[in-house]
Structures are given as structure tokens and as C-alpha cells.
Amino acid sequence: MYKQLVCSKIGKSGCYFLSLVYIAENITGKRVDIFPLYEKGIKEKWFDDEIYMEKPSAMMSYLVGKECDVRHDKVGYKPKENEYEITRYELRETGVTYAHFVVTRNGKLVYDPFGASRTRTKGNAVSTRIVKVL
Question: Where in the chain are the domains?
């Protein structure tokens, strides 16, 4: 594995991946090493090599050690006690749409993997992913 290449991919398009890792770390109280997780995720086909998430529930189940479900919902959905919320933001500029995922709770920012992402600060919330530990 080429760590610099993996860092570049995660930096470019790993916001959903990192949001899931953040939630898993908060559930378990354990830090996650993203390099072996990246390799396992590719092998298990949880995501492609550009970190487009294909099976987020499978990755979350592995990380927390319990079955998890991840589903799409609308902005404004109020997560229940055992649910976690990831919000997708979009920013449209001159024919290009940028997307970014952050961890939220009832629409309020909890964690932005990028810090102060321009897509989040200038864009609009368009959908949510609800993570539920079963």
C-alpha cells in the first residue's frame, strides 16, 4: 500500500468513509487505524478504490462489532437515540456540483472531516444517511 496515495484518495473523496469511522470510534471508544481499514474495505468491497461507499452498513458492522443498518433519509429527519446522522451537502458552481458528508445531530454539525469545508459552509444540506446499531 502506498500511504501517500491512500491519503490523497481519502482527502479527496473520503468524507463519508471518515464520517462513518468517527461514529464507530464514538460508539466503541476505540481509535480506528484507517490504513488497514482502507485495505480491508477494498478487499471486502465496502467501497471502491476511490472510496465511493458501496456497503456502508457492512463496514459499520465490522467496526462496532454489532449489526448495523445505514439508510438514506430526508433532511430534517430526527434520529432516534440509537441512530446517528450523516448529512450530505452540495455546492453548485458553474456547471460543477461538489458534495461533502459530515456528522450531524438534528441537523447541527458534530464533526466535519475536512474542518470547515467550503461545500458545507457555502452549500446546502440535501440528504442524510442514518446509521442504526441493531
Answer: 3-133
